[in-house]
């Protein structure tokens, strides 16, 4: 008789129920974000009569700054207290957000709601990322991140187009934000009653982990300090630091798309419904394409997708800055979605490839600190440039920065993931500039 030892197992298939539940929870995270995507820039102009793009973008700045900080603490707290308590805390913070958006008597309330939104998104999205990496193990991180990010951004797209429809037919408030009330209530129930802790899965992977030969984790049981993790992820480790800057620039241009694209489209005479469609196309293509790009990065490697994706985004932004018709903007939005899909799940998978399981959650938090700090930087940069030289100038400047970021990845980042021609029992990281050869890491397939 065969005895099966109870305990955590690694792999998507082995954890399909919990993994699928976390995909659904992250879709609700995206939905809470998507309730603002179409309506809030229009609310700023039409209800609060704001003048000046910099002031209008204060809500993106508030969101980006607080989300960046929340990402960092989500990583450290997940290691200290567990993943599930951090996830629940993020959903508790979300309760007042849609109500504040509905009843806000002044723009200050909108900014305050976006501070809470940043905390909610940082804690919940970061934690679902960490939990899926825990469950998936090393073999299918690209697929895991593709599914996670696809769920989140498809929900952003669905909610953006739905709120645009509701706003066109029932007004800017309260109808579009009632979706947010439903999302938060459902997410709280699922997270509290059905989601299970995954920290033991990370510990299992750490126990099986083979040390790297570059001095970073020569003792897999030794804990790096938070400062050491920050320095390695931000500056010292070539792949981690290249990923961090690329993530920051990616969200810099996403902040531009969120805050200024609807104003650009409205200035060209597009209706609210058409603006809603354009606001939805970009995250919809982004979300769907990640179902392809994430798994393909498991097969062909991370670096080609990240480099090419940043350059595709730059081309798309240049097209937005030069176009003046709905059809061309549709093409540009779809192209921007494809480029972002090539980058987004692949960057997260690369962090998971390099960071040791003992400090991986903190590395994810540091990466997401830089990445979502891009929202705040983008809000200030795009707002100032738009005020001084116009909307299209802001788009062109961000397009140039995105192209430079892609070149930085091409020059600095080494390949972090093995190709399929490696033996199925081992994975080796390809040696690159500034790195020494790494020992084989056992593969745990789902």
UniProtKB/TrEMBL annotation:
Compartment list: Cell membrane
Membrane topology: Multi-pass membrane protein
One matching Pfam family: MFS_1
Region (Disordered): 420-446
InterPro entries: MFS, MFS_dom, MFS_trans_sf, MFS_Transporters, Sugar_transporter_CS
UniProt cross-references to CDD domains, sorted A to Z: MFS_MdtG_SLC18_like (cd17325)
Predominant subcellular localization, coarse grouping: membrane
Keywords assigned by UniProt, alphabetized: Cell membrane, Membrane, Transmembrane, Transmembrane helix, Transport
Keyword field contains NAD: no
SUPFAM superfamilies: MFS general substrate transporter
TM region(s), chain numbering: 12-33, 53-74, 86-103, 109-130, 151-171, 177-195, 255-273, 326-348, 369-389, 395-414
Residue ranges constituting the Major facilitator superfamily (MFS) profile domain according to the UniProt record: 10-417
Protein name, entry field: MFS transporter
Organism, scientific name: Isoptericola hypogeus
Lineage: Bacteria, Bacillati, Actinomycetota, Actinomycetes, Micrococcales
């Amino acid at each position: 008789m065969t005895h099966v030892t109870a305990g955590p197992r690694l792999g998507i298939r082995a954890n399909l129920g919990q993994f699928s539940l976390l995909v659904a929870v992250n879709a609700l995270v995206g939905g809470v974000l998507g309730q603002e995507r179409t309506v809030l820039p229009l609310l700023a102009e039409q209800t609060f009569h704001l003048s000046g793009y910099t002031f209008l973008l204060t809500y993106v700045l508030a969101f980006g700054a607080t989300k960046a900080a929340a990402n960092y603490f989500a990583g450290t707290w997940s290691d200290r207290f567990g993943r599930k308590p951090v996830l629940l805390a993020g959903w508790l913070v979300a309760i007042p957000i849609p109500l504040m958006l509905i009843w806000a008597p002044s723009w200050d309330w909108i900014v305050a709601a976006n501070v809470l939104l940043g905390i909610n998104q940082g804690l919940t999205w970061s934690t679902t990322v960490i939990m899926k990496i825990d469950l998936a193990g090393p073999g299918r991180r690209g697929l895991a991140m593709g599914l996670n990010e696809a769920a989140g951004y498809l929900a952003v797209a669905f909610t953006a187009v739905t709120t645009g429809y509701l706003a066109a037919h029932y007004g800017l408030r309260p109808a579009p934000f009632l979706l947010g009330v439903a999302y938060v209530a459902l997410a709280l129930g699922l997270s509290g009653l059905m989601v299970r802790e995954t920290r033991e899965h990370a510990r299992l992977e750490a126990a099986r982990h083979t040390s790297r030969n570059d001095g970073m984790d020569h003792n897999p049981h030794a804990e790096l300090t938070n400062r050491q993790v920050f320095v390695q992820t931000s500056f010292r480790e070539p792949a981690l630091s290249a990923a961090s800057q690329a993530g920051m620039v990616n969200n810099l241009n996403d902040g531009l798309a969120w805050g200024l694209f609807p104003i650009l489209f409205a200035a060209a005479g597009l209706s609210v419904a058409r603006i809603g469609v354009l606001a939805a196309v970009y995250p919809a293509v982004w979300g769907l394409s990640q179902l392809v790009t994430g798994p393909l990065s498991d097969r062909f490697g991370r670096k080609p997708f990240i480099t090419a994706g940043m350059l595709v985004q730059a081309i798309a932004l240049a097209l937005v800055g030069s176009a003046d018709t709905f059809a061309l903007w549709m093409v540009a939005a779809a192209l921007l979605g494809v480029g972002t899909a090539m980058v987004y799940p692949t960057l997260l998978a690369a962090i998971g490839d390099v960071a040791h399981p003992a400090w991986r959650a903190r590395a994810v938090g540091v990466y997401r600190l830089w990445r979502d700090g891009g929202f705040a930087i983008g809000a200030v940069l795009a707002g100032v440039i738009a005020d001084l030289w116009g909307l299209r100038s802001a788009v062109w400047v961000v397009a140039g920065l995105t192209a430079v970021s892609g070149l930085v990845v091409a020059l600095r980042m080494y390949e972090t993931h093995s190709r399929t021609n490696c033996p199925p029992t081992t994975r080796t990281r390809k040696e690159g500039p500034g790195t020494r050869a790494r020992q084989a890491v056992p593969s745990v397939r789902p």
